[in-house]
Amino acid sequence: MRSILLTGGNGYIGTHTCVSFLKKNYKIIVLDSNVNSSPISLKRVKEIFKLRKNSQENIIFEKGDIRNEIFLRNVFINAIKRNSPIKAVVHFAGLKSVKDSVIDPLSYWDSNLFGALCLLKVMNKYKCKTIVFSSSAAIYGKNIKNPIEEISLIKPISPYGDTKVAVEKILENLFLSDTKHEWRIANLRYFNPIGAHHTGLIGENPYDVPSNIFPYICGVAIGKYKKLNIFGNDWPTKDGTGVRDYIHVMDLADSHLSAMEFLLNNEPQIINLNIGTGIGTSVLELVKIFEKVNNCIIPFDFYDRRLGDVAQLIANNKNAIYKLNWKPKKSLEDMCRDGWKWKKLNPNGY
Ligand code: NAD
Ligand code: UFG
Fold it and tell me: Is the peptide bond prior to 147 cis by the omega test (within 30 degrees of 0)?
């Protein structure tokens, strides 16, 4: 049986995607440098499957950096030696803070672009030509008409978004240059993943003060932060606060499995897909639902608009639903309940 390689598989979205692939009996290899994650996350994934000591062969962990080509080659060689060559890659590994990317763009280009280049070169060498890439709604930037379609204007407003556009471009170049027509590529453009696996065993584990809203709300609920600062109540939205398309992280995880199976079962192609629910929720609505579902109070204040924010980001997800035999199944209530369960059970992360 051949393996699927998940780069960055110890991270937030990666661990949940491990669960999706293992549920369908795939053999997976998780590659991670743990620069922003804990290897304990994989132990938790195994706990979810109640794996016994002698039945852990479905997950292999390779610790290292994707920018280290020798290490990467060894990951492919080791898989061949185990008689389970890598058939396809889900590429999560990279840095993801919009704010940090403005402060330190070189690190972002190095991890996200140079990392992707190293990976693609090694994939090419070992004739592994199927990839699902973690792209982002950040590529659409500011001047957009909602809901956003895949053909909407691509105009990122941060170095982070720039790196995602650049990798998508490299993948397009690669596909167009491929005279043998072997490359199969899916760029999944995520909207706002929140929540956690319903067991509360795995979840988002930010090392710093979270800049994203959901882990911050959880931090307020657990008493770590006094109140939520809502960035602006004068946006041109239904209640003046920012509107986003929140998607349960397990629905997002399942979209990777569906995209991979779609690629492997169809003609070689390159596809760009928005992965969201198509539903816009304001910050105030999110806070209210969180309070209701989890029976708690989230104190908040209105604060200035955050630099670089946009009023709304909502996906037109029709292409993903049509192509992938996938659709988001979980509600905002599920996201709030599951995310809070993870935080309650793991107040300090892993
Ligand atoms: P995360 O930080 O939790 O996971 C990324 C993982 O990659 C971490 O485990 C980190 O240790 C690892 N990593 C980073 N650089 C590496 C390198 N050079 N070599 C090996 N491992 C490395 O982030 P996440 O939320 O799980 O995001 C995964 C992917 O999805 C990222 O590419 C991110 O840009 C993209 N994305 C995330 C969001 C979001 O809101 N979480 C939205 C859109 C896109
Ligand atoms: N917000 C607050 N207070 C906070 C944090 C956020 O009011 O403490 C508001 C923001 O202003 C925005 C909404 O909550 O209106 C969502 O903000 P997030 O930071 O959670 O998410 P963003 O949409 O700004 O960014 C996320 C990812 C980016 C990605 C982008 C588009 O963090 O990596 O979605 O996919 F680029």
Answer: yes
CA distances from 153 to 176, 287, 318 (A): 21, 31, 17
Atom from ligand 2 closest to the CA of residue 235: 15
Give, in degrees to the nearest 5, the angle at Cα 257 between 256 and 262. Answer: 95
H or E element that contains 151: none
Q: Can you spell out the DSSP letters for 60-81? A: EEEES-TT-HHHHHHHHHHHHH
- 141 strand-pairing partners: none
The structure tokens 């020798």 sit at: 70
For the Cβ of 36 lying below 6 angstroms from any atom of ligand 1, the answer is yes
pTM exceeds 0.85 for this model: yes
Give the model confidence (pLDDT) of 247-300 as tens digits: 999 999 999 999 999 999 999 999 999 999 999 999 999 999 999 999 999 999
Catalytic residue among 108, 160, 190, 246: 160
CA angle 317, 183, 185 (to 5 degrees): 20
For 56-65, write each residue's pLDDT tens digit.
569 999 999 9
Distance of CA 159 from the midpoint of ligand 1 (Å): 15
Instruction: Give catalytic status of residue 190 as yes or no.
Output: no
Q: Please, which residues have CB within 8 angstroms of residue 281's CB and are 6 or more apart in sequence?
A: 243, 244, 245, 246, 289, 332
163 lines ligand 1 (CB under 6 A): no
Is residue 321 within 8 A of residue 276, CB to CB? The reply is: no
The closest alpha carbon to 324, from 20, 18, 7, belongs to 20
Cβ of 298 closer than 6 Å to ligand 2, yes or no, is: no
